[in-house]
Amino acid sequence: MERVRADLEAAGAAGRPIFLDASARTAEEAARALGVAPGQIVKSLLFLVGDRPVLALVAGDRRCRPEALGPASGLHGPVVRADPETVRAVTGFAIGGVAPLGHPEPLPCVVDASLARFPVLWAAAGHPRAVFPTSFAELVRLAGGVVDARIAEPSAGSGSVEGAR
Fold first, then answer.
1. pLDDT in tens, 87-100
2. In the predicted model, is pLDDT for residue 164 greater than 50?
3. Which of 36, 78, 139, 163 has the largest count of CB atoms under 10 Å?
4. Using alpha carbons only, how large is the chain's radius of gyration in Å?
5. Cα(8)–Cα(161) distance, rounded to whole angstroms?
């Protein structure tokens, strides 16, 4: 959480991490704890496109479309979901607390365009109970991401399809 706080301050971001009383490991849990719509929760999902890690930032009420990550990121190769060990090694965070910034090395990042529906978004801050508020434009800037509408589709469930942010 301190890496996220430091990176937010260094980037001149308005929001700061807060620690919730309840778990925010899933989009559904985070939305309930914050009293916001599931779509306002940013799920940070790590995939490998070929052998390159790519971070997908997806609205909590959407499901990531992995097949769209290669074209959206400009990378080629099979797309697979990163396992928990790879997630921690690449991002420095455990699943359920992966922040869109604060990684050991910059990551290619693709941002779900549907997140722009909301004036306030909430993203993980490096711990399963820590989040920070941001705007769509600021999220894209902080993550160094490219925006793409193809990477996500409406979820049939409750917003926790991926199980972690």
1. 999 999 999 999 99
2. no
3. 139
4. 14
5. 28
